[in-house]
Specification:
Blueprint (H helix, E strand, L loop, with lengths): L1 E3 L6 H27 L4 H20 L6 H15 L7 H24 L2 E3 L1 H11 L10 H12 L27 H21 L5 H13 L8 H10 L9 H4 L7 H8 L1 H8 L7 H9 L20 H17 L10 H11 L6 H16 L1
Antiparallel strand pairs: 1-2
């Protein structure tokens, strides 16, 4: 480990630096999300390059030297990306976000404490790995990006996974290769989900996780649900919760029957938000039915079995799963992912779709083992 003490700088300059890095980090994160959908979009690639280049320049102005060299190495990769010499990949995105996160912590600690301890060996090893990425060894890129991520994290390089058998989730639940108007709607719904998660007391990123899981498990079905409709339902289904009384949403005691009915009305509120967007009629149906149970014990209509659409059957399982890993129903502590899978199978017999539950078990087993 090494210790870095910055040269004297005015407090207002350092504060401006911190604020700009936060803005550029958030902008880069959004750009990377859009690149997942449109990996060949050159304007997005150029925007990502500019953000990293600006951060590097800002650090240079205040002589925050340790992070500048590794950012230069990353900038070289992004320069090749924007010139069409390297392909975009999710692992490239992971490296960018991890490095920008390290930079953000580095700057924040310097400003707060007047010095920062950092892993100089990890940074040097990361630079060495990044420099091995060239337009002539594209087949090695996934392994090299994995090695760079491990190096930056201060870990030994992980065993490389064959890309043909790799199991993982996307960063969002927005499908690729869909019409531009559908992409626009989905990005809009995703942006709305963030303040709604905060208002409703959900963990940040819940919408992304449930949507990504849904697309992953849906891909295992021999007759998959339309990905776009499923994704919209995953992002929009809890919008109505943001319009519930705060004291009711966060109430720890058992709800009265009147309070339960009010909470359950969020289903209608969510569906009404998109009732005039006819392109999403199937998503609206999924949202309306995602609290229905196979045995007819659900709400709001009390329908059962074949009356429930396939998307609602899948979303019903995943909605319960996310509830369990964020705030267990019978405990003040959330369950682990493995415990939540076990609880789903044990505690909801007769309520969940058997075929979708089997695919959920299969998909979660593959994902958690991977």
């Amino acid at each position: 480990m090494a210790l870095f003490k910055p040269e004297d700088a005015y407090d207002d300059i350092l504060q401006d630096l911190k604020e700009e890095i936060v803005e550029l980090y958030e902008a880069s994160e959004q750009t990377l999300i859009e690149l997942e959908i449109k990996p060949s979009d050159n304007e997005l690639q150029r925007s990502l390059f500019r953000n990293v280049h600006t951060i590097k320049g800002d650090l240079g102005l205040v002589s925050f030297v340790p992070m500048i060299l590794v950012l230069q190495s990353l900038e070289d990769i992004l320069d090749m990306l924007r010139k069409g010499e390297l392909p975009y990949s999710s692992l490239m995105s992971d490296l960018v976000l991890l490095l920008l996160d390290k930079v953000s912590v580095f700057v924040d600690t310097c400003i707060k404490d007047g010095q920062v301890e950092y892993d100089d060996v990890a940074i040097e090893n990361t630079i060495v790995v990044i420099k091995q990425l060239t337009p002539h060894n594209v087949e090695e890129h996934d392994g090299l990006f994995q090695d760079a991520i491990s190096a930056l994290s201060g870990e030994e390089p992980q065993a490389r996974v064959n890309s043909g058998t790799k199991v993982g989730l996307g960063k969002t639940g927005i499908p690729k290769n869909i019409p531009e108007n559908q992409q626009t709607d989905l990005l809009f719904f995703r942006d709305l989900m963030r303040p709604i998660e905060k208002r409703a007391g959900y963990n940040e990123g819940r919408g992304d996780k449930i949507a990504a899981l849904a697309l992953y498990i849906n891909s295992l079905h021999e007759n998959p649900i339309d990905e776009s409709q499923l994704a919209v339902a995953c992002y929009v289904h809890d919008f109505g919760m943001a319009f519930m009384p705060d004291e009711l949403v966060n109430k720890s005691e058992a709800l009265s029957s009147i309070e339960q009915n009010l909470i359950r009305s969020h289903v209608y509120k969510s569906t009404r938000l998109i009732e005039h967007l006819t392109v999403w009629d199937e998503a609206r149906k999924i949202i309306m039915q995602h609290h229905e149970n196979m045995d007819g014990s659900g709400y709001p209509l009390g329908i059962k079995g074949p009356e429930i659409c396939e998307g609602a059957k899948l979303l019903s399982i995943l909605d319960r799963y996310l509830d369990l890993i964020s705030s267990a129903s019978d405990s003040s502590e959330p369950l682990s992912e493995v415990e939540a899978v076990i609880a789903i199978n044990k505690n909801y017999k007769g309520q969940l779709s058997g075929p979708w539950l089997r695919l959920f078990n299969q998909g979660m087993t593959e994902f958690l083992n991977a």
